Amino acid sequence: MSKELANLLADLDEDGVLSAVKERLGNGDDPLKLVEECRAGMAVVGERYERGEYFLSDLVMSAEVFKSAIEIIEPRLKGGMAASSKGTVVMGTAHGDIHDIGKNIVTAMLRCSGFLVHDLGVDVPPQAFVDKVKETGAKVVGVSVLLTTSFNSLKQTVEALRAAGETKVLIGGGPVSGIVVSHVGADGWGKDAMEAVNLCKKYAR
Ligand code: B12
Predict the structure, then answer these.
(1) CATH: 1.10.1240.10, 3.90.10.10, 3.40.630.30, 1.10.10.10. Which one for 2-79?
(2) What is the 3-state secondary structure of 150-187?
(3) Which residue, of 44, 90, 149, 196, has the fewest CB within 10 Å?
(4) Which atom of ligand 1 is nearest to the CA of 171?
(5) Is this prediction's pTM over 0.85?
C-alpha cells in the first residue's frame, strides 16, 4: 500500500494520486504518512530527472501534482492539532533557491502545532532573516534548502544570524545531512516536518 502512492506520484499520475489520497484519508490513514509517501515519490522524480529520463517540465508537473495532493491532505493535518502558542519561528528558503514545497509543509505543520510562523518565502537573502528575527524576537529560524549551490548562501545566513544574536538555526531539505549542518554551522536539521516540529518545541521557548 505505502509504495503505491509514491509510485503514482513518481509516474506523474495525477488522477491516481488524488484518488489514492482521498481513498486513504477516507479509510482513516494518518495524513502525515501520506505527505511522506508523496515526498518519497518526489525523490524518485528527482532521480529520474538526474538520469535524463525526466525533463524540467516533468519537475514542474510533479510539483503541481504534489500541491494538489497537499490541498486535500492539509485540512486533515489541521484538524488533529492544538492551537496554543508555542513560540515564534521565522521560515524561508535559502538565497538562490526557489523550491518551496517542503518549506510550506513544515510551515503548515508548525502552525498546526501552535507556533506563530513568519514565512519569508523563497530566495531569501541573509539580511532578510536577520531583519525578521529583530522585528519578531523569534528564537528559531528554519531554512529550507534543496540546491547544493545554495549551501554557501545558507552558511552566510547562519553567520549573519550568529552575528546578530542568539537565534537557533534549523535547516532541512532534500540534500541536508549532519555534514551540511557542520559545514554551515547550523544548530540542527530535520529530515521531515515532524522532526521540524519536535526541534522547534525544543528551541522556540
Ligand atoms: C519539484 C522540484 C522542482 C520544482 C519546485 C517547485 C516548488 N514550488 O518548490 C521546480 C520545477 C520549480 C524545480 C526547479 C529547479 N530544480 Co528542482 N526539484 C524538484 C524535486 C523533484 C522535488 C522537490 C520537492 O518538492 N520535494 C518534496 C518536499 C516535500 O520534500 P523536501 O523539500 O525535502 O521537504 C521535506 C524535508 O526535507 C523537510 N524539510 C524541508 N525544509 C525544511 C526546513 C527545516 C528547518 C526542517 C527542519 C525540515 C525541512 O520537511 C519536508 C516535508 O517532509 C527535487 C528532487 C528531490 N530529490 O528533492 C528536484 C531538485 C531539488 N531540483 C533540482 C534542480 C537542479 C532544479 C533546477 C536548478 C532545474 C533547472 N535546470 O532549472 C531548478 C532550480 C531553480 C532555483 N533557483 O531554485 C535538483 C537539485 C540538485 C542539486 N545538486 O542541487 C533536484 C535534487 C533534482 C535532481 N535530482 O537533479 N524543481
Answers:
(1) 1.10.1240.10
(2) HHHHHHHHHHHHHHHCCCEEEEECCCCCHHHHHHHCCC
(3) 149
(4) 45
(5) yes
